[in-house]
Amino acid sequence: MSTYEDAGVDIAAGERAVELMKARVAKARRPEVVDDVSGFAGLFDASALLKYRRPLLATSTDGVGTKVDLARRLGVYDTVGHDLVGMVVDDLAVCGAEPLFMTDYIACGKVVPERIADVVGGIAEACTLAGCALVGGETAEHPGLLEPDEFDIAGAATGVVEADELLGPDRVRPGDVVLAMASSGIHSNGYSLVRHVLRESDLTLESEPAELGRPLGEELLTPTRIYAQDCLTLARAGGVRAFAHITGGGLAANLARSLPDTVDARLRRSSWTPPAVFAVLQAHGGIPQSEMDKTFNLGVGMAAIVAPEAADEALRLLQARNVPAWVLGEVTEGTGSAHLA
User: Fold this and answer.
1) Are strands 263-267 and 338-340 parallel, antiparallel or unpaired?
2) Alphabetically, which GO biological process terms does the record hold (predicted)?
3) Among candidates 218, 221, 219, which has minimal Cα distance to 188?
4) One digit per residue, pLDDT tens: the chain, 341 residues?
5) Pairing assessment for the beta strands 133-141 and 98-108 based on DSSP bridges
6) Closest CA to 334 of 228, 202, 178
7) Three-state secondary structure readout of 17-39
């Protein structure tokens, strides 16, 4: 006689994980969340959208990528949830959408209740920072497909923006100012290259480069800064033309996605000093600057394109929200490219 447990699936462990995460998830709510006693679906009261003249729903989905491998190797599971939320909700913020609710998906080789609770707890904490409700999720155990300590996470979120307040390239004009918002570090992109450097160089997760002042592994797991509420604050103040979430592809490529084909963005490399972790990886990995530019955020996690008369107030608002920010460059006539020089 064979059982599900013989196949490697522990239903009791899954139930234990749900119990452990309940208190943390309960904090990631909005008033519009409606409890579904069956637990099969997340419910959100759509009558909240009646206050909009023409509400546009925005949706985004993403994962954390190979950064989860470093979390697994270090046995630290409560930070990658922040990364997941940041990757998803900050994409919504680019068009000016307020994140409303999110769901998550965790696949693992073996359900370890405490580990799953840490991951989901991090997601819930980050949803609270983003003003987004965590309305549901799924944990799947895949024995034989994933090793017992392996896992991956993904999520999706829905937001809303007033149609006539939708931000994007069509609003950008020559003379606009490009503002940079500092990243907390590498965020969640470029970790395949990071892991390659760790394999091929003398660096290890336990290394303590003098430039960092702490172990490299700890630095690499620094959670993604979440900008959603910061972006919404700027948008409500007026003068914002567009945002660009700086993820895979680097600063120039992502910023170009927020430009019409009639302008360029001229970005000044001298306007900031990237966090030390980038120099450490570049030096030990022998990475050309061009490869750094197209792989990492280099210390800029989000960019805002604003009207020139709105730039000073935008910087003041970001400073008040404890987001380091500065003038990164300006918009000129061009062909839709961003140039970092």
Assistant:
1) parallel
2) 'de novo' IMP biosynthetic process; adenine biosynthetic process
3) 221
4) 665 665 666 667 667 766 766 666 667 788 888 887 667 788 888 998 999 999 999 999 999 999 999 999 999 999 999 999 999 999 999 999 999 999 999 999 999 889 999 999 999 999 999 999 999 899 999 999 999 999 999 999 999 999 999 999 999 999 999 999 999 999 999 999 999 999 999 999 999 999 999 999 999 999 999 999 999 999 999 999 999 999 999 999 999 999 999 999 999 999 999 999 999 999 999 999 999 999 999 999 999 999 999 999 999 999 999 999 999 999 999 999 999 99
5) parallel
6) 178
7) HHHHHHHHHHCCCCCCEECCCCC
Report residue 185 CA to chain centroid gap: 12
> Which domains are present in the chain?
11-37+52-162 (3.30.1330.10), 169-340 (3.90.650.10)
User: Are residues 172 and 263 in contact, defined by beta-carbon separation less than 8 angstroms?
Assistant: yes
Q: Which residue is it, tokens 């409500």?
A: 236
Q: Can you read off the two tokens belonging to residue 313?
A: 């107030």
* Tokens of residue 4, six digits: 């599900």
Q: Hey, what are 176's tokens?
A: 């606009």
Contact 311, 99 (CB under 8 A): no
In whole angstroms, what is the distance from residue 104 CA to residue 126 CA? 12
